[in-house]
Amino acid sequence: MARGMATMAVVGTTAEDAAAGPATPVNGTPAVAAPPATGADVTVPESRGRADAGVPTTPLVAPVAGAPVDAVAAPTLAAPTVATAAERPRPRPQPVAEPAPAAPVVAPVDPAEAEEFLRLFHTEAEEPGATAVKGVAARAASFEERLAEVRDEIARTGTYVHTSAELTFGARVAWRQSARCIGRLYWRSLHLRDRRHVVAPDEVAAECVGHVDEATRRGRIRSTITVFAPDTPTSPGPRVWNEQLIRYAGYRTGGRVLGDPRYVGFTDHARTLGWVPPSPMGRFDVLPLVVSGGGSFAAQGPQIYEIPPEKVLEVDLEHPDHRWFADLGLRWHALPVISNMRLDIGGVSYPAAPFNGWYMATEIGARNLADAERYDMLAEVAGKMGLDTSNDRTMWRDRAAVELTLAVQHSFDVAGVSMADHHGESARFLRHLEREEQSGRKCPVDWSWIVPPISGGLTPVFHRYYDEPTDTGPMFRMDPVQAARGQGCPM
Ligand code: ARG
């Protein structure tokens, strides 16, 4: 059963806001202690492997993701009605305990990187048939003309502005290069929301809500990316602190955690910024967005924004055969939107570029709800199944993980929400590999992320070797500062 498509809902960010009544879909609350900006934002290759599942990993790009990742998410914000900037509630300025963060220093674009990207764009746009990138083939100029123009622009300004065709192509190729993503067959279909003019935190938040809305489509999920202003030598772009736009809070209560333990730190940080959790607190409370503006807004530090609940589509989990399963009270959100990776294209870096695909059932059933450091539901499920949990050799964990994943897949199907399964997606991934080979390209793959967390050997992706992940070309990257912030460390 799908939740969250109700009507209008308004949530106050602070007790005061809540009391102020409805009509405030977006609430901003300035930082108490302004976290220093991102002077240290350094782009580094993502960390690898499943061992770091508890650390902000690098998500796969769009559609279906394979294994580990999790990113945080924050509820969708404001939204539809939010319309004009004038109507939008402004964050109330508050005294800041620390000096405003300095704007990140970004080096001028390396013309060689720009050239490499432009060459790729022009080469692929000229390829016939299936390899041409749908919808972006329109080039305003020849490669030579465009290169001269870009060189000149870099010399004058230290950066350059991508045409919208270049941006679309760059974002799609960044997805194509995402070594951890099993859903790359659809890389050409990525839908771009070009929001490069947006730097104000209220507007960033509202656009994040718009993203959730447009990508969810009542369950017919569309792979989408929203690109905000880039970092330039003279002005920082905005940042979204959440790992994912939609994620659940985690509350430490005594020795235990209510909700998602992965986000205990983030939840604490949101509370220091003024977020007031629902009362009573629950296991699936959608976190607020935490956003720092770009340009002159950067000095304000992070602001929080509630996502209107009706924008967040969720699915209540039930099992096709076990009636008791629904009583566990489990659910999950429909849309995974990774929001703290930067998008690098041809030397230009976009620090806020939230992107989504749709879920694969194992991500939720065999990781988010199963991992010991997440919702840790296997023992309870096994208990209800009547399994002997006193000994690993009964394989109760394995059996419970399969049933949990089956429940997820079944429930999403019943609710009409897009969801991949690991068998189908593995087969599609091999088709993608084949196509890439035919196009004469390498396909970088991180095996440990592509192989699903259950039944690995039952899927074809298990049984082969792949090209190594690369670190050049258009890429999604996790920088350490953003990674730490996604876990609640206000550095
Ligand atoms: N594994 C992450 C999660 O459970 C999502 C990563 C992206 N997944 C995707 N199917 N696009 O939320």
Highlighted features:
single chain; 491 residues; alpha+beta; 4-stranded mixed beta sheet; 3-stranded antiparallel beta sheet; 12 helices; globular; heme; NOS_dom_1; oxidoreductase
Provide the fold topology.
Elements: E1 2-3, H1 15-19, H2 111-126, H3 143-157, H4 164-176, E2 191-194, H5 201-216, E3 224-227, E4 239-240, E5 250-253, E6 256-259, H6 264-272, E7 289-292, E8 303-305, E9 314-316, E10 331-333, E11 337-338, E12 342-345, E13 348-350, E14 355-356, E15 359-360, H7 361-368, H8 378-385, H9 396-415, E16 419-420, H10 422-438, H11 447-450, E17 475-477, H12 480-486
Parallel strand pairs: 2-3, 15-16
Antiparallel strand pairs: 1-9, 3-14, 4-7, 5-6, 7-8, 9-10, 11-14, 12-13, 12-17
Helix pairs in contact: 2-3, 7-9, 8-9
The structure holds arginine.
Region (Disordered): 16-55, 84-103
Biased composition (Low complexity): 22-45
Pfam family, one: NO_synthase
Secondary-structure content class: alpha+beta
Q: What is the averaged pLDDT score? A: 82
- Largest beta sheet, briefly? 4 strands, mixed
CATH topology (level 3) name: Nitric Oxide Synthase, Chain A, domain 1
The helix tally amounts to: 12
Quaternary status: single chain
Distance between the termini: 40 Å
Region (Disordered): 16-55, 84-103
Domain Nitric oxide synthase (NOS): 180-187
Biased composition (Low complexity): 22-45
Protein name: Nitric oxide synthase oxygenase
